[in-house]
């Protein structure tokens, strides 16, 4: 029981939230994110992904239900939120929503400075965060001279400098070209290897299929399905039923098996590389 | 934006902003206390030369940035040479006033000196460094925060305006005078919404990073700060002494 509760990092229990204009953000939403996992939140536009993330960081407060962190209900006092936000880092979809200062190094220092750390500690964290996202060479540059992808990396660095145990990214791949997506993918893997729990929202079904340890499907503010990423090949109908379509690797694999070009395998491939390995024996 | 580009990438980018600010302030003080137009003109010349030779700003780009202000200065200077007479037999008369020439020259060279001193600072120092300097000088936090946000929003909103203008032009929004005016109105109205949305997003962004009010950033460190401050103080003092001595 103790192990189960330790594994539970963040949990929403029957959370409902409506915006002042009456539009529903979340409706009776229950969802559990486990520690040291890479969770992907799938949802169509307007499904409530951003609203859910803003609840995770204590920006929004549930109108009904509750949010638990480390199995305890969130403390919405000044000190409680301070504690929560130093542990839960949130990276927004649009980098211009997050970048304050004109300089890269200064902007990354914003979070650690708010934590009230010593100058030496802030400097160390800023340099580590810059290195983690491969932006050390751009530390002295002006933010408005960076590309969209570089701005996104600065945003991630700004959150990493606060050394969170949970990193939440809202549509991190939106607007990035293929090479930048690959680079960001590597950064996320490295962060996960360092023990950071990651939750991200994406529309990229192929990425979710191969990368996620846990998949959660959000439909109109309600969590409709959750499964372990290892079960992805058995959950293909879920992807299709919720309007995301079939992951291309799975589509190709089953087509090859059906047409007799490939023998059915015990380990169904989740990535393009795994499928190639299967084809080439 | 040209000014911003040079401020971030000039030869004196790594020189302590306090030294550059001090030299600029000395130049400003010198032109304010000087009563001889030759001195004010000389200070302006020194400031232009320092900006170009020291910070490495090309003359062409310097003039491109300075042109609007210089045109304004020229127009203002010319109006100082003209006076209105209400007591002429034919009523209101506009006439040249040669006796005003020395005063006009002093005012113009003084303005030019002050302008070039500020331009020296603007060309050699990014706004965020100037803000950091003002923070060290204990300027009220609320003013500094406003400066930080305004400077950042300048680029965010200019990006938004560019996007909207492109979108309007692509759909013949500027095909005629009427359409252009209509497009401009829509753009302004839409910009208001964008300002509101973006400021809300920035507020959420600040909250997620544990902000509780004042915007705090790491202040940059500069190599060999003392030497540069001493050199700036010596140069600036020379200008001020010159302004006091030559009358």
Written description of the protein model:
Chain A is of the alpha/beta class and 281 residues long. Chain A has helices at 2-7, 49-56, 78-87, 104-114, 119-132, 148-160, 178-193, 205-211, 236-241, 248-258, 272-279, and strands at residues 8-18, 24-34, 38-43, 64-69, 72-73, 88-91, 166-170, 197-202, 214-219, 222-228. Chain A is globular. The mean pLDDT of chain A is 89. Chain B is mainly alpha-helical and 247 residues long. Chain B folds into two domains: 2-87 and 94-125 and 221-246, no CATH class; 138-208, no CATH class. Chain B is 73% helix and 5% strand. In chain B, helix 4 (59-80) runs antiparallel to helix 5. Chain B is flat, with a radius of gyration of 23 Å. The two termini of chain B are 39 Å apart. Chain A binds chain B through residues 54, 57, 59, 78, 82, 85-86, 89-90, 92, 94, 96-103, 105-107, 109-115, 119, 122-123, 126, 140-145, 158-159, 162, and chain B through 4-5, 8, 13, 126-128, 132, 148-149, 151-152, 155-156, 159, 198, 201-202, 204-212, 215-218, 220.
**Structural class category of chain B:** mainly alpha
How many β-strand stretches of chain A?
A: 10
Strand count, sense and barrel status of the largest sheet of chain A are: 6 strands, mixed
Number of helices of chain B: 9
Percent helix of chain A: 25-40%
If helices are DSSP runs of H or I spanning 4 or more residues, what is the number of helices of chain A? 11
Q: Biggest interface, which chains?
A: A-B, 42 and 32 residues
């Amino acid at each position: 029981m103790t192990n189960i509760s330790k594994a539970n990092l963040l949990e929403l229990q029957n959370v409902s939230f409506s915006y002042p204009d009456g539009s529903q953000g979340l409706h009776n939403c229950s969802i559990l994110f486990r520690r040291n996992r890479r969770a992907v939140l799938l949802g169509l536009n307007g499904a409530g992904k951003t609203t859910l993330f803003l609840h995770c960081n204590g920006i929004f407060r549930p109108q009904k239900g509750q949010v638990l962190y480390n199995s305890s209900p969130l403390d919405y006092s000044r000190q409680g939120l301070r504690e929560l936000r130093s542990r839960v880092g949130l990276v927004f979809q649009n980098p211009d929503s997050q970048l304050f200062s004109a300089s890269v190094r200064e902007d990354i220092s914003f979070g650690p400075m708010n934590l009230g750390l010593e100058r030496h500690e802030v400097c160390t964290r800023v340099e580590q965060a810059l290195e983690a996202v491969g932006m050390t060479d751009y530390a002295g540059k002006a933010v408005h001279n960076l590309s969209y992808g570089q701005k996104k990396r600065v945003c991630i660095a700004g959150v990493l400098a606060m050394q969170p145990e949970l990193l939440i990214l809202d549509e991190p791949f939106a607007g990035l070209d293929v090479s930048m997506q690959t680079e960001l993918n590597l950064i996320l893997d490295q962060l996960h290897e360092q023990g950071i729990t990651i939750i991200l929202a994406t529309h990229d079904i192929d990425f979710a299929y191969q990368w996620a340890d846990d998949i959660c499907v959000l439909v109109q503010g309600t969590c409709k399905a959750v499964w372990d990423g290892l079960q992805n090949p058995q959950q293909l109908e879920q992807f299709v039923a919720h309007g995301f379509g079939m992951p291309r690797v799975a589509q190709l694999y089953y087509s090859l098996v059906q047409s007799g070009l490939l023998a059915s395998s015990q380990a169904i491939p989740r990535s393009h590389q795994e499928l190639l390995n299967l084809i080439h024996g | 934006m040209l000014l911003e580009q040079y401020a971030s990438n000039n030869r004196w980018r790594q020189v302590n902003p306090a030294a550059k600010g001090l030299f600029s302030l000395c130049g400003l003080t010198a032109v304010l206390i000087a009563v001889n137009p030759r001195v004010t003109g000389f200070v302006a010349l020194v400031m232009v030369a320092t900006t170009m030779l020291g910070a490495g700003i090309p003359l062409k780009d310097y003039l491109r940035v300075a042109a609007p202000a210089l045109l304004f200065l020229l127009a203002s200077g010319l109006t100082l040479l003209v006076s209105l007479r209400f007591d002429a037999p034919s009523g209101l008369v506009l006439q040249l006033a040669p006796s005003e020439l020395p005063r006009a020259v002093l005012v113009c060279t003084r303005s030019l000196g002050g302008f070039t001193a500020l331009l020296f600072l603007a060309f050699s120092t990014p706004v965020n460094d100037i803000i950091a300097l003002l923070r060290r000088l204990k300027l009220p936090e609320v003013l500094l925060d406003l400066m930080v946000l305004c400077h950042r929003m300048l680029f965010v909103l200019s990006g938004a305006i560019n996007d909207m203008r492109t979108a309007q032009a692509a759909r013949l929004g500027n095909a005629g005078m009427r359409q252009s005016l209509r497009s401009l109105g829509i753009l302004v109205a839409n910009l208001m919404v964008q300002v509101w949305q973006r400021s809300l997003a920035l507020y959420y962004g600040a909250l997620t990073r544990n902000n509780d009010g004042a915007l705090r950033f790491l202040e940059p460190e500069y190599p060999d700060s003392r030497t540069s401050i001493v050199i700036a103080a010596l140069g600036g003092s020379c200008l001020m002494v010159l302004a006091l001595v030559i009358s």
